[in-house]
Amino acid sequence: MVISVGTGGTITGVGRYLKEKNPNIKIIAVEPGPNSRPTKENPHPEEIMGIHAFTVVEPQYVPETLDQSIIDEIAEVETQEAYLAARAFAREEGLLVGASSGAALYYAKKLAKQPENQGKNIVVIATDTGLRYLTTNLYQKEA
């Protein structure tokens, strides 16, 4: 299962339930890549709205709703990768999703191309709609 992390509530709840049913399931958390997070050198990057880096912040800033023990892998996705995936999903599948869902979709497609994942099911939970992003760079500009 691939899911982007906001408050951590969805990945925690769904991940715990799925791990109870099948301990072998792999839970992959998606967070913004280094170029999509504010730094001293780049204080105002175009961020992926709705997802947060939780591996590079002080522990007190990680939401209590996020149970990191259920996460098997952490994936970093950049804003432009998330945007491209969200736009492609809207264009090809007719489903309007936001950037955080685009980030999860981007990484799931990357996983699906790996030989070791042939024949496996990869599930993505799209946690946002693209409606609120119609007037943002997500749908106003092509990268």
Summarize the structure.
By secondary structure, this protein is of the alpha/beta class. The protein is built from four helices and three strands, in the order E-H-E-E-H-H-H. 32% of the residues lie in helices and 9% in strands.
Round the Cα radius of gyration to an integer and report it. 15 Å
Q: What string gives the helices and strands in order?
A: EHEEHHH
Into how many domains do the coordinates divide? 1
Average pLDDT score: 93
CATH topology: Rossmann fold
The assigned CATH architecture is: 3-Layer(aba) Sandwich
Shape: globular
Count of extended strands: 3
Percent of residues in beta strands: 5-15%
Low-pLDDT windows of residues: none
Question: How many angstroms separate the termini?
Answer: 27 Å
Biggest pleated sheet: 3 strands, parallel
The CATH class label is Alpha Beta
Helix content: 25-40%
Structural class: alpha/beta
Individual helix count = 4
Q: Strands across the major sheet, in which order?
A: 1-2-3
